Amino acid sequence: MDYFGNQYLNIYDISSLNNQEKENIVFDEVFNFEVASPQTFKFTDDGKYLVGSSFYSGVSNIFRVNVENLEIEFMTKVVEELPVNDWPADPSDIDKYYEIPTVKIPELTGLNVLIAEEIAFSNYLLPNINLVDSEEAPGLVLTQSIELDEEVPEGTVIDLEVSGQKFSAPIPNIPPCEYTTEEAENLIKTFMRENNVILFLKKNYESSDVQGCEGKVIGTNVAQGATMSTGDTLIFIIKNSLEDS
Fold first, then answer.
1. Which residues contact residue 168 at a Cβ distance below 8 angstroms, ignoring those fewer than 6 apart?
2. Is the entire prediction scored with pTM above 0.85?
3. Number of domains in the chain
4. pLDDT tens digits for 51-62?
């Protein structure tokens, strides 16, 4: 075997084998089976052939080597020219494996948008938030586009109209490399609840030379302590972890 994982079938001159002079060992390279090991090759009784097996073709086949000219040939070719109609039929219920699972729509109207988002995601739904002017408390879900208990495929987008009376407040500082993504999100969600400022949160993953910050927030799209208003987008910039690279 070489450094690339190639596995060779070789025929050695036994008289040349010497651990002290390996460069002088004499052999004939028969065939490179690449990553498929040549297995149980042995000489026939008359010494004219080497016979063994390998998964070189994708399945186990028997190979024969002519010792005189080193030509190698298949003695078997498993599944070659096997009629398609000999393969077993697909299971009768195979279609169910291609079906997208369904979920029932939960009640989101009347909830705070942060709670509604969490419930939607936990039910494999994609909430789309639309802020509207309203006399209701900021962040209250006013309507949902799909009715309660309706059955829909996982991954369905559900539109939520949310009371978006515009409030503004300075966001808390998020020093680089101090918070994990979850900790930073929780900090901002607390800020949103306390100040009635509804922000859209997003994540961007970037490379950085800063050591020890993998998976942590290294910045945002706004300055530290910036004043943000309902409907603004706050982007967390996160250093790629080794798993993300």
1. 197, 227, 228, 229, 230
2. no
3. 3
4. 999 888 777 888
pLDDT at 9 over 50: yes
Domain of 229 in residue numbering reads as 168-239
Best CA proximity match to 235, nearest among 198, 205, 192 = 205
Please give the C-alpha separations between residue 212 and each of 27, 58, 208, 224, in angstroms, as whole numbers: 53, 45, 10, 21
Same-domain status, 195 and 220: yes
Query: What mean pLDDT comes out for the span 175-204?
Result: 90
pLDDT band at 197 (very low <50, low <70, confident <90, very high): confident
Report in angstroms the alpha-carbon separations of 99 from 121, 124, 125, 156.
Answer: 20, 15, 16, 14
Q: Are strands 157-163 and 126-132 parallel, antiparallel or unpaired?
A: parallel
Asked if 219 contacts 231 with a C-beta cutoff of 8 angstroms, the reply is: no
Q: What is the pLDDT of residue 166?
A: 78
- Laid out side by side, the sheet with 61-66 consists of 39-43, 49-54, 61-66, 72-74
pLDDT at 243: 46
Domain boundary residue among 163, 185, 201? 163
Per-residue model confidence as pLDDT tens digits over 107-139: 999 998 889 989 999 999 999 988 888 888 888
Q: Are residues 59 and 122 in the same domain?
A: no
Tokens read off for 5: 């994982």
Would you say 142 and 161 are in contact if contact means Cβ atoms under 8 Å apart?
yes
Helical residues (DSSP H) of the chain, grouped into ranges? 113-122, 181-195
Any bridge partners for residue 69, and if so which? none
